[in-house]
Amino acid sequence: MTWIEIAATVFGFLCVVLTIRRSVWCWPTGLVQVLLFIVVFYDAKLYSDLLLHVVYVFLQFYGWYQWTRPEANRESLVVQTLTFGALGAWILVTAAGTLGLGWSMSRWTDASLPYPDAFTTVASLLAQFLLARRYVQNWGFWICVDVVAIWVYFTKGLNATAILYLTFLVLACIGLVIWNQRLALQRGGEHE
Question: Transmembrane ranges (predicted)?
C-alpha cells in the first residue's frame, strides 16, 4: 500500500458519495482518483484496469460536460431507466467485451487475472457511460463490478483499494435505492 493508493482511495470514496447526491463535483473528484489509480494499476500489472482508468480520464470530462451543459441544469435531478431490451443488449456487450479483452490480455501481455480484470474494465466503462446519462441501472453494473473487484484487489494485495471497493459496493447499493426513489418520485409527477 502506497500513499498514492491511499490518496486514490480517499478521492474515490468522495467521488461516489458526491455521485449519489448527484453533485457535479463528483466529476473533478473522480478525475483526481482515476489519475492516481493509473499509477497503482501499472505497478500491480492490472493492465485492463490501467486502460480503463485512462479511458476514465476522458469519461470524467464527458460526464462533467453532460451534467453542466445548460439543458442539464433544468434536469439536474432527473434520472431515467433503460428498457428491458436495452439492458439485455448492454449485458451481452459486457459479456462479449469481457471475453475479447480477457483473451487479448492473456494472449499478449503478462496481465494478472486477465478475465476478472477485463470484466471490471468492460462493465465499469458501461456503468460510467450509464451514470453520465443518468440511467438508474448504472448502479447495478457498479454492484457487479465491485463484487469482482474486491476479490481481484485483495488477491493482488491492494488492500486499501479492496476496502475502497467494499465501500463502493455499500455505496452503490445505497445509490441504487436513492436513485430508484428519485425515479419513483418523477413517475409520480413530483419534482423538487
Answer: 46-65, 77-101, 113-132, 139-154, 160-179
